[in-house]
Amino acid sequence: MKESLTDTLYTKQLKSGCVILSSKEMMKKIFHHNIRLLAVLLPASILFQGCVNVNQGNPPMQSSKNKVTEKIFKSDEEWKKVLTPEQYQVLRQKGTDRPHTGLYDQFFVKGRYYCAACGLELFESGSKFDAGCGWPSFSEQLESGHIEEHRDLSYGMVRTEVVCSRCGGHLGHVFNDGPPPTGLRYCINSTSLVFKNEDQLVKEKSADSTDQQGVTND
Question: Is the backbone peptide bond immediately before 85 cis, with ω within 30 degrees of 0?
């Protein structure tokens, strides 16, 4: 019996030593290829969508354009010698003060706040406000580049950690629920800070001027 034209199209044929598939088998191969391709691309697509959702729910904080080039590097043993146990736990081990217990939580004297580990200027009293969260809160850093931000995924949360840009000491976190015009809330551990009031700053400035004059006269 002669094969029909349809049977012929759906049969493998040999040509130049290669197997040529019928149109039906070719469609079947294309179908299975697409299924395998979807199996690879679908999980990647879901993962990408999840990343987009995380970013939308946690908009990026204001980044520091200027970086402090001077860095301080110390070993853990060296830090333990210059910091109190509480300071070491917070600044070097990323610990946290208990809420409403910090020295500077309800502290509103005029002056400036410095990194307790290396003395870098961080905040001014004019940017401090009572957020009611239990930790000292500031709406902006004193100098751009004095604070660095890192993505923090600890404790099942997505937060932005802030550290001293000179020594890398842990300060706290920054959130997008602060007052205008910045809309930021730097939530900082009191243990990470040291404070100098206006009188201290004036005396230090006067002493520096005197020292500079002495150098010039010499």
Answer: no
pLDDT score recorded for residue 206: 86
48 and 141 in a single domain? The answer is no
Structural domain range at position 31: 13-55
Is 18 catalytic? The answer is no
Angstrom distance (rounded) from CA 12 to CA 215: 97
Together in a domain, 89 and 131: yes
Structure confidence by residue, pLDDT tens digits, 58-94: 334 443 445 545 899 999 999 999 999 999 999 999 9
Q: Residue 185: how many CB atoms within 10 A of its CB?
A: 21
Q: Taking the model in full, what pTM does it have?
A: 0.66
Question: Is the domain of 95 the same as that of 181?
Answer: yes
In a domain, 127, yes or no: yes
| Catalytic annotation, pick one of 115, 118, 164, 187 | 187
CA 174 to CA 58: how far, in whole Å? 11
User: How many angstroms separate the Cα of 143 from the Cα of each of 20, 67, 130, 173?
Assistant: 72, 10, 21, 17
Rounded CA separation 81/155 (Å):
30
